[in-house]
Amino acid sequence: MPFQPTQNSFDRDLINNLLQDGIVRKKAEDQLFSQYAYFIEQAMQKYSFQEDEAFNVYADTVMAAITKITNRSFEERSSLKTWIYQIFHNKCVDLVRKRTTNKNSVNRSMAIPDMLLQMADTAKSVIQELMEKADKDLVAQKLKEVGENCRQLLLRWAEGLSDKEIAISMEYKTADVVKTSRLRCLEKLRQLYKKDKTNSIG
Amino acid sequence: MDNLDYIESYFNEELTLEKKNEFEQRVIADPVFAEEIAFYLSSKQAIATVAKKQRERFKDVYTTYKQTAQKQQPSLVRKLWPWAAAAAILAGIAFGLNTWLRSPSSKELADKYVQENFQSLPVTMGNKEDSLQAGLRLYNANRLEEALNYFEKMASKDTSFFEAKKYAGIVSLRLEQYDKAIDYFSQLANYSQLYANPGKFYHALTFMKRNRPGDQQQAKILLEQVVQNDLEGRHFAQEWLKKW
After folding, report:
1. pLDDT at B58
2. What is the pLDDT at residue B222?
3. How far is B61 from chain A (nearest CA, A)?
4. Which end of chain A has fewer CB atoms within 10 angstroms, the N or the C?
């Protein structure tokens, strides 16, 4: 007997709305978050997480789910709840492992000012000057144009996740694949940014 | 993209000191390269702000969710509902087991006996068979009042007609006229010349069925006598006494 998808009308509507743009999508994202937010409390009880930890895991879960839905890689083989719980559970287990092996902060990248500390003063002032001129709002705006997968990759990178962590959370095969994809996405963003910047100057 | 990889290697401190110096010299000498580095760093900052905003938005959603959840927090009854349900199931099981395992009461034993043995009566043969048969036919047709009349008339006409008294007692028992039944069965029990006299056993049975205060004790005494004297109904009496 062929597998029958177990999707209900709630799931269908929510997925449809997530595939829209603007306010409809934003509302759908919020709705998705609220719908299974009780997972946070469950994780606090089951894994003895602090509320912040459980919240972060759940927020990551929802973001990952949104990415998959919007790039249509959610195969709808199970209900949204089952699928999201599976992602959430995997992320919880991952956090537990990280805590156990105490590797949680090892791969976190440094904050930007710290990153510049290692640079010689002359070079540093050149970079700082250029950074001041950078249009961060334009970067944020162009981030919407790189595609959902790239966006999520870059969001995770900017939040300080290592490539290995990103590979786990976004189901990439290896950290190397993440690195290659991430740099490609960053380059794409740069090109979009450059193009817009050049046009505005011209 | 190669430059981005190179830039990242620098900030991840993966370059040798020599390569690191070379990198920094290039920053000063190559404005395009310097701009790439600035983009790498400022884009990371900008994207981090976006990520932070997204997370904060979810934090707001979560705060709203928690407030709503608190408002909708289940009442004490709903909180205790799973426990109440579990307790009810356990009580049900206990009740079921108790009902299943406990010995039936003497009243229940009597009811069962009457149900199994007095629903219909075999037609007897004898000298006065016509009258008896007429009475039994009425009995088996569930015309109990008429049957009782028949048997009573026969018993009063011939006081030695023990079978009429036996059936008058049985019909009285079925009609729940226990006092009358007791009277007939005690008279029946007094017929000492009978080979098989169920009088005492039926007498005990009527006490069990009537179940007034003191009836059970009286019934027990009679059943013990049935057993001791090896009277009609001894096997039932033995079984019932075991469950008493």
Report:
1. 92
2. 92
3. 6
4. N
